[in-house]
Amino acid sequence: MTHKEKPPVTEEVLADEVTEGLQSESEKLPNKILRYSRARERALLILDEVTQQYHQTGNPYFSKISDKLNSCGNYLSFRHYYTVDKVRLHAASFCKKHLFCPLCAIRRASKQLSSYMQRYKAIMSENPSLVPVMITLTVKNGDDLLERYDHLVKSVQVLNRKRTRARTGSRDKTEFSKIEASVGSYEFTNKGKGWHPHVHIAALVTAHIDQQALSAEWKKATGDSFIVDVRPIGQIQEPIKGFLEVFKYALKFSDLTSEQQVQAAVTLDARRLLFSTGLFRGTQVPESLIDEPLEGLPYIQLFYKYLQGIGYTLDPEKSTKSNNI
Ligand SMILES: [Zn+2]
């Protein structure tokens, strides 16, 4: 595979998955294949790390994960509906261990992003006075990822609980009580100074959120951190740019070393990294990582198999044209 150039940043990867852009879907396919090849390549590095952990610990959990990673994404079968120039991923086997596997992370994040963008548009059409903002809350770095995760989650829950109580009239108003809908994700980076935990929240608000007041509330909730950031989304850029921040969390694991990624994935595997409140609650995200087919249209099947060291390669023998419908 010829990809010595720097891989695209996470936000661009995700944006390209879900936005229409200037290129048609068939024109976008080669880049998608390249992205998926890189993701699979990274997944194989993670597989090596997991296998090593299994040999060191004998823990059957690692052997289960390595089996899953091993069989994930060995082939990808797309359908190109050439009369409408749409491309859909029709079949693949996915491990669905998205914290370990960058390929599943891309597919899942793009499904989540599409579902929440759809919901966002529906909410805004019924409540046009709401203003979308991006809120980032940070807690202090630390070496113990689980302890930092718990601390961050509990602190966010304090703000969300106060919001609920204020809205039912039983407590004073807070900055969060201006939020009508929010969707947020917990993200963890590590650049050598311990785990840096933070939360990105896309929120639809009824009034301006005061950064200083929020900072004071956050300090009270966390006891050790006051760093918050609030900025409007959707005014200068498309709202999707703000939402990308929220849904890139699992893709960001690929910025860690493979050892750190496995450590983080093991620690956070069964934990919730995405949450929603208010009007965003109940947004349905499809479980399946493949795409819905387009019924009744002729297509060309494009079957790619993964070859180690090369990437996804089209298999002409398995790539066929459908009978004319
Ligand atoms: Zn996978």
TrEMBL record:
UniProt-recorded Gene Ontology molecular function terms: DNA binding
Q: Which Pfam families match?
A: Rep_1 (PF01446)
Keywords, ordered alphabetically: DNA replication, Plasmid
Q: Where is this region: Disordered?
A: 1-23
Biological process according to GO? DNA replication
Under the heading InterPro entries, the entry gives:
Rep
Q: Which family does it belong to?
A: Belongs to the Gram-positive plasmids replication protein type 1 family.
Give the protein's recorded name. RepA
- Organism, by scientific name, is Methylophaga thalassica
